[in-house]
Write a structure and sequence with these properties.
Elements: E1 13-15, E2 21-23, E3 26-28, H1 40-51, E4 55-57, H2 65-77, E5 87-92, H3 99-113, E6 118-123, E7 128-129, E8 146-147, H4 151-163, E9 167-173, H5 177-184, E10 195-199, H6 207-215, E11 219-223, H7 246-255, H8 259-269, E12 273-274, H9 281-288, H10 297-304
Parallel strand pairs: 3-4, 4-5, 5-6, 6-9, 9-10, 10-11, 11-12
Antiparallel strand pairs: 1-2, 7-8
Length: 330
């Protein structure tokens, strides 16, 4: 997949397979409601809009869509942006896979954000918990309660939401090739997934899955593009910190950039959308400053060679699920 125009800070949208487009650089809004200060996300989104961000990645399960929506509404009201300027990605949580639950769940996000439509809505994971409003359902022994899901039926419900005008584009997240093929080979398919949001960074380049997605016109959105925090309860800390990599840091020194900026630039030169999460004003601004330099072909190859084919985010809560797919190569 190639694009004719070099991305700029003002215009870095790339086309999707449904005729819409998506900005290459976005702000991740992941947070843990119990430990994230109130209004942290609200303030970060307002700052990001002023910096130049137009793409925001969120989810109902993050517990902050009301803050994201309030920030959007205020920046629209003061004339900084219009609704058409804003690109928001929401996600269908894993207790809402049954088809009859899909539209009401999407409508929850719309109500929280005071929007008539969402730009992109994706299935957060190809596996499901027990359906219902308990986000992390467990049995009397403290074990997660899983549920077998019919991905094609869930996808048809998403297609209906698109037809109803509630969402412009639909996609998936954390899908491997086999799960993508379930959707792509579905009889009567109306819309192919526009994106597949997956962990992707220089230590986990997703080479084969990217080739497959390119073949089918599916744009990859890379989460954790800078690696992630070093919380051993959910992160594989055996993998070294990406931002300490000596090769990336050497390139950063050459361009008078940070290692984070080099890692992000590497991804957008692969036409991979990046959504680094930060609520820190300085980091938000810094991460966006990647459109004023370009890595050479040789530098791209050197970073490409750093691939360890290992995940930081192991999604350990799903290890016992009968449909757990991540031992597959791609």
């Amino acid at each position: 997949m190639s694009f004719e125009r070099s991305p700029t800070a003002e215009n870095h949208r790339i086309p999707l397979n449904d005729g819409n487009n998506i900005p290459l650089m976005g702000l991740g809004t992941f947070s843990m409601p119990k430990i994230t200060p109130k209004n942290a996300c609200y303030n970060a989104v307002k700052i990001a809009i002023d910096v130049g961000y137009r793409h925001f990645d969120g989810a109902w399960v993050y517990g902050n869509e009301d803050e994201v929506g309030r920030a959007f509404q205020e920046k629209i009201a003061d004339g900084t942006v219009s609704r058409d300027d804003i690109y928001y990605c929401g996600k269908l949580w894993n207790t809402y896979h049954p088809p009859e639950m899909v539209r009401p769940t999407l409508e929850k996000s719309l109500k929280l954000m005071k929007f008539d439509y969402i730009d992109l809505y994706i299935i957060e994971l190809p596996m499901a918990f027990k359906p219902g409003d308990v986000i992390y359902p467990k049995d009397e022994n403290g074990k997660f309660v899983y549920h077998l899901t019919d991905l094609c039926a869930t996808w048809e419900a998403l297609e209906a939401c698109k037809d109803a005008g509630l969402v412009k584009s639909i996609g998936v997240s954390n899908f491997n090739r086999r799960q993508l093929e379930q959707i792509l080979n579905k009889p009567g398919l109306k819309y192919k997934p526009a994106v597949n949001q997956i962990e992707c960074h220089p230590y986990f380049t997703q080479i084969k899955l990217k080739e497959f997605c390119d073949l089918h016109g599916i744009v990859i959105v890379g989460y954790s593009p800078l690696g992630t925090c070093r919380d051993s309860t959910w992160v594989n800390v055996k993998i070294p910190s990406l931002l300490d990599d000596p090769i990336i840091n050497t390139m950063a020194a050459k361009y008078k950039k940070t290692s984070a900026q080099v890692a992000l630039r590497y991804q957008i030169q692969r036409n991979i959308v990046v959504i680094p999460k930060s609520f820190n004003p300085g980091r938000i601004k810094e991460n966006f400053e990647i459109f004023d330099f370009c890595l050479t072909d040789e530098e791209m190859k050197r970073i490409y060679a750093l691939n360890k084919n290992e995940r930081y985010v192991e999604l350990l809560m799903w290890r016992d699920h009968p449909e757990y797919p991540f031992d597959d190569e791609y």
